[in-house]
Amino acid sequence: MAGRKVFAGARLRALRTQLKLTQAELAARLDISASYVNQLESNQRPLTAAVMLALSEQFNLDLASLSTDASDRLVVDLREALADPVFGDAAPNLQDVKTVATNAPDIGRAVLQLYEAYRKTNERLANMDAALARDPQASVQTAYEEVRDFFHYADNYIDPLDRAAEALSARLGQPGSDRLRALIAHCGDRHGISVELDPRQADETLSRFDRAARSLTLNGHLEPASQFFRIAALLCEFEQGAVLDSLLDQASFKAPEARAVARMGLANYFAGALQMPYGSFLAAADALRYDIEDLARLFGASLEQVAHRLSTMQRPRERGIPFFFARVDAAGTITKRHSATALQFARFGGACPLWNVHRAFEAHGQIIRQLAETPDGNRYLCLAWSTEKRMGGYRGTTRRYAYALGCEVSHASRLVYADDLDLMRTAFDPIGISCRICERRNCPQRSVPPLAAGIIVPPDRRGVVPYEIG
Question: Region 323-337: what's the mean pLDDT?
Fold first, then answer.
């Protein structure tokens, strides 16, 4: 944002600690005083253009990463948690929350973990589930929640896996139908792994790997894009095992199962990066003006895979448009969530009912658009569509999902979907994160009152919502 002061004390302090430098040594490298470094690290002074340039030249830092407020998502998460009435008058104001997110992000994440532990315990007590209440694991994050936060705070971009996948992709050849055969041949030639399809597979098993026989069997009902993805995910274990171990060691997960869940997530990340290598995918996205259907055809991928990949294009010095991406099931539950934008998804409740992703089930087969504004004033172009995933024949199961992909309006002109839209119009659809923290007073779709405000029930007047927000 033009004219915005950049405070990056926590990142500067982390850099200095990583390099094992004293403040005086860092000051000498940057040609500034040690007291100035101290003021920068304590966020008493913003970074100047000269200091940012010196950091870039001395330590090869990406200027975009310094000027981007990486604490935004932590602020949103903390505000949502602190809106709970349990905090009462002790809840800090927005400026205090921003200070914590900027200066002490680890403390902020610890508060989120503590709040999640409180909610789990409270829910168990509310359900009078004595067995779960005695569970010694009841006060920690679940494995999936830990892994979700691992990707969440990495901006959903894993550099060593991304670059390794791009290098292997170059050896497999240009995107096209031959890449699947090339990948299968690579598995056989390099690792002695055979790949076969089982057309009789009737259950939900996508793949089975026989380690002794080094044989991978794929469900014969999988589309070619999914076949490529499953093979690539397995290949990651054989070619990037040491990298996976290093990433997982650094994560220091607490839940015993989190390491296994994260390993699977990282292998899937590698698969998506191999299917859509960073450089060529970003160039094609720009050339095709982010038409996800054209990108899917070009790279032999599904719309879900393309949208997910777009949300990961955050390589330093080669950043793409910051996108958010989410997958929603038929019950309205967000089952995948990634965001490189200021828009964050609800961690503790349902998604905003005014968001167009909920209407995607009604417009099956179409990509629908929405110009939306969040309570913080940010405006977005939101795309949504739905798909059905079938496994098997007539008696096979069908899973239905809706997908959301979007970016801030400032980037929307680069998308083909914005060509006939008036991006300067004053009327944008009001959406929020979730009803429980939304500050809007006149929403006809509100499901519950905001936790941070009281309500008034007029005795002689009834509206669509049976109360007023105090």
Answer: 89
User: Which pLDDT score is estimated for 208?
Assistant: 94
| CATH H-level, domain 9-67: superfamily | lambda repressor-like DNA-binding domains (1.10.260.40)
**Which three-class secondary structure state does DSSP give residue 394?**
coil
At position 364, the amino acid (one-letter code) is: H
DSSP state of 390: E
Separation CA 162–CA 274 (nearest Å): 8
- pLDDT, tens digit, for every residue of 7-16? 777 778 878 8
Please list, in sequence order, all residues whose beta carbon lies within 8 angstroms of the beta carbon of residue 319, skipping any fewer than 6 positions away: 64, 313
More confident residue, 453 or 185: 185
Query: What distance in Å separates the CA atoms of residue 313 and residue 411, rounded to the nearest whole number?
Result: 14
Burial class of residue 66 in the structure, from the number of CB atoms within 10 Å of its CB (0-12 exposed, 13-18 middle, 19+ buried)? middle
pLDDT in tens, 251-274: 988 888 999 999 999 999 999 999
The C-alpha angle with vertex 152 and arms to 339 and 161, in degrees rounded to 5, equals 100
| Burial category of 426 from C-beta neighbours within 10 Å (exposed 0-12, middle 13-18, buried 19 and up) | exposed
| Cα–Cα distance list, 392 to 110, 122, 134, 261 (Å) | 45, 42, 42, 27
**Domain-wise residue ranges, the chain:** 9-67, 72-140, 142-320, 321-470
30, with CB counted inside 10 A (0-12, 13-18, 19+), is buried
Please give the backbone phi and psi of residue 219, each rounded to the nearest 5 degrees, phi first: -60, 125
Tokens coding 333: 């539950």
